[in-house]
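Task: sequence design from structure.
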């Protein structure tokens, strides 16, 4: 009895120390996030609010690359949507924000703000070390 009690207590303590994940239909339930302040902060860092900003192949208020446009279109195709983004959509604040939200819904289903900021700068396999300055700049606008 004493050994069984100890095993149960260890299991109980381990369960309490694990982060809670709400499951809905087998998937982690995303927490609600108001992305507007994050997107506006990214726009300030990326282009200082200029819709027609260019830096190499990065364009628009959120400095979106052609690869990002293709990724958005791949996600839309995967979701059986007929909508597609054009390269010129990168210069639209509204369309840039739509693309950001689409990328987050696909690559950041838990809606983690830090992950969103760092991955916007460093890609899906970002390095915390290499995205630290960018993260701090964006956070300073929040």
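Answer:
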């Amino acid at each position: 009895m004493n050994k069984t009690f100890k095993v149960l207590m260890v299991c109980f303590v381990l369960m309490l120390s694990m982060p809670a994940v709400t499951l809905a239909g087998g998937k982690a339930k995303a927490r609600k996030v108001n992305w507007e302040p994050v997107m506006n902060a990214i726009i300030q860092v990326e282009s200082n609010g200029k819709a027609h900003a260019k830096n190499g192949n990065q364009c628009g208020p959120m400095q979106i690359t052609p690869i990002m446009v293709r990724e958005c279109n791949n996600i839309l195709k995967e979701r059986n949507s007929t909508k597609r983004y054009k390269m010129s959509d990168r210069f639209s604040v509204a369309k840039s924000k739509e693309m950001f939200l689409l990328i987050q819904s696909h690559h950041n289903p838990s809606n983690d703000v830090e992950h969103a900021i760092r991955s916007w700068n460093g890609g899906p396999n970002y390095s915390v070390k290499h995205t630290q300055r960018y993260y701090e700049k964006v956070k300073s606008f929040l």
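The chain has one domain: 32-141.
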